[in-house]
Every structure is written in structure tokens, then in C-alpha cells.
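Deliverable D4.2, example record:
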Amino acid sequence: MKVNAIIEAIDMWAEKEPDREVYREPNQVYTYSQLVYRANQLAHFFDENLTTDRPIVVFGELEFDMLVAFLAASKSGRAYIPIETTTPQERIDLILSVARPEMVVTIGDWQESQADVKRVDVQQLHTIYQMPIERWQNVTRSDEDTYYIIFTSGTTGVPKGVQISHSNLLSFVNWELSDFGLKTGMTYLAQAPYSFDLSVMGLYPALTSGGCLVPLKKAVVNDFKQLFQVLPTLPINVWVSTPSFVNICLMEPHFDQSHLSGLSHFLFCGEELPKKTAQALLSRFPHAKVFNTYGPTEATVAISRVEITEQLLHAYPRVPIGYIKEDTVVTIMEDDQVRQAGQLGEIVISGPSVSKGYLNNPEKTATAFVTIDGRPAYRTGDRGQLTEDGLLLYEGRLDFQIKFHGYRMELEEIDHHLSESPWVKEAVVVPKYKENKVEQLIAYVVPADNTFEKEYQLSKAIKTSVSQRLMSYMIPQKMIYVPHLPQTANGKIDRKSLIHEVNPS
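Output generated by the structure prediction step:
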């Protein structure tokens, strides 16, 4: 199946099969006609009440209204920015200051922000759904106009907004629908928050192919007893998650083919897939296809994929990250020189899924985005190589950007916020690895003067002081207190020596 336009493909399903299921919650099922009708109502409201085409922030979790707001923004000719409800207020304010949205749609509980922005809450939203309007006509946008913006971690403490265009998204969706053996009308797991671009791997392939999304909400995910009760009952065909999340699920003995007989595809992205995880899935789900994929947010979710087999796992010490999609070129670069097959270097991606850059941030855009042979390209900062037959192998980060529980983050951003704590003079954060995957964040801290009797009391105070500025998964699990931080010959903090100290082997 080939999609020519995202919005029109979703509208087509609502017109062709209005009662087709699009979102299935435990006690509520929504249809394509409900999705499109509500989106048209909200798009009309945007058109009547907004005076610019600046982006619209959508604040919530995995509610059906989030999908409605995304589609409504697109139909009205505007990009949307998803923000998760657990995001600290200071980070929200930073995102708003960079994005300068004209409106925020708040499906979750919203704390008043300092930003001057119009707001629609969930009660108003359901009133808007009831307002009579004439037939809605989607606003025409060009392929290069921005479809959505996802904010990622920034080295200075200010998040970067990755702009993904209609053509970027179309390139990704058509690749997934054609190269993974997916069929019309499949049901997809929706577990990743919409502020994490992994969610797009299920969201738009499902909506454009007449599929149905099955949300697995955070309250269930965070309660293992409840999660393990729910897992065997999930009515899904396509599993989309990070390897870290499926590792948790593999702790449940009934997470297998006999209890989830309809589960035919596993799609992984966001972090490295460990061999043990891949082997366990092949054993538990012998009739399912397991795919490992790779790609940064800046290149629209993923640009390579490989199906996992016993032969593949036997042939490579680390699980390969895939063959490059047909419309994309990966170049391995070292000191601005192209490396040959089998040689290591930075993975540089060029092609139609590469973002136009960071929202309102020309300096960071100029640093990360380049042109190769007339094509837009993105320097990933990932180290890897291509085999003779075009298989991409991942060898780690070139810098100090990491992925932890599937979330990409800059260690320098965590340093920045830790150092702003009143209890900290200096701090540097390093990852502790297990099987090539980040297992823990450890902070080396030069403490400020304090009256705490025990180190654990100091650690608790530091974590509390940064909790309003850092996402919970970015707060180091362990603090090591030192009188000073090691330095290189150039007088810079020697993070590499600390990484070696916590990873001696």
C-alpha cells in the first residue's frame, strides 16, 4: 500500500469505513469517523480563533483526544508539538520560549505557565466537538511545511525542536508499510509517549493503513503487577517499543506466542537491541517477525531495518541496525573523508526523511545539518560502519549523547542542571554500561557547603532540587562525592576517565 498524503489517507478511511476501529481502550472504542469528525470541529475552531500559523502545543499522555488535536492542527495548516504531562514545568517553559506557540491544548493537568499563550482545556475541547460547522475543507500545505515538532535534549540546557515535514513523514510511513510485511487493518501497540518519536512508528503507519492503536498507559506500565496481568490480554498484531521495555515484559512467563497468538511483528527502535533480548523473543514468539531499526529523531524515526534471525545473531557480535531504506543514503565519514565498507566513522544520513533543522535555532542547525552531493544530510554523532553488502553496524556514540530507557539525552544538559542546584559546586554525569547498553547514570559531584549529616540526605536534596528541571529518567541514580573533578591537559573536565572508572572492563 502506498500513501500519497497523510491527512487525506486518514480522511479516506473515515469516509470509506466510518465504523472502522481506530483507538481501542479497555472500556472505550473509537472509530475513524469519530476521529475525523472531532478533528474537523477542532480544526475549524483553530481557524476561527488563531491569527498565525505558529505551532500548537498538545499536552497530555495517550488519550484519544491527543490524536484528535494532532490531526486538527494538521488540518488547519499548523504543526503540533506533543508534551508529556510528567515534563517538569521549567522544561515546559523552555520549550514554549523556543517554540512560541499561539495555543496550547491541555488534555492533562496543566500548571499555569509564564508564557503568554492561548489555551483550550479538555472540557472546552468536548464543547468544541459539539459545535455545528459547515463542511470542513483541509488547509492546503506544501510538502516541506512542518507536520510535527519533537523537542530533544540540548547541550546548554535548552531543548531543541526537531521539525519534521509532511514529506519527511511520508517517506518514513511508506517505507514502514512496504518493507516490514505490514497489512491493512492491523492493531498496533501505543506505549511510547507522543513526545518520544518512537510513538510515530506506530501512530501514522496505523492511521494511514486503516489500523487500530491500542494504548498501554503509564499507570499500567509503572505497576508491574498490573502490567503483567494486562500483557497477555493485549489485542495487538504489531509491537512497537524500546528494547528496555520489552525486557521488562519478558519477566512475565505468559508473555509469549501462545497467549498473544495475534502478535506477528516486533519493531524496535530508540536504543541498542541486546542479543539476549533478541534471542528470548525468537524463542517466545517463533511465528513473529522481529525487526531491529535505527535512526535519529532528525531523520524521522528510523532509516534502516533488519529482520532478526538465529543466523544473524550468530554472525555478528552486536545486533546489526539494518539495511538502509531505498530513498536514503548513509555515508560513513571520518575527518570529512568518506570511509569505505568495513571502515569505522560517523554515520551521516541524507535523503527525504532528513529534517530541515531545529526550530528557531539556526546555530545548532548549521552545526548538525549539512549538504552532501546536493542532498540535505544529518550528522548523527553515532559511530558505525557499513558491510560490503550494505548492512549498517553500530559501534557507539562519538560524543557524550546517550540513550537511556529509549530516551535520547545529552549528558551535558544533566551536568548543567545539576550544577545549578544550591547543594552542588560542580557535577559531571557518566553512564554505566551493561552489555553495551546504559544501565545507570552516575553523577560525580563536588558538593557545596551544607549541614547534612549523611550522604543520602544530600543526594535526596540534590535530586529534589533538580526534579523541576529534569525529566525523572534524566536524574542520576547514584551520586559519588569528590573534592574536585579530574581535568585533561587542556583544563577541561575529563569525563572519559570517569566513564572508564565506572566501566573498568
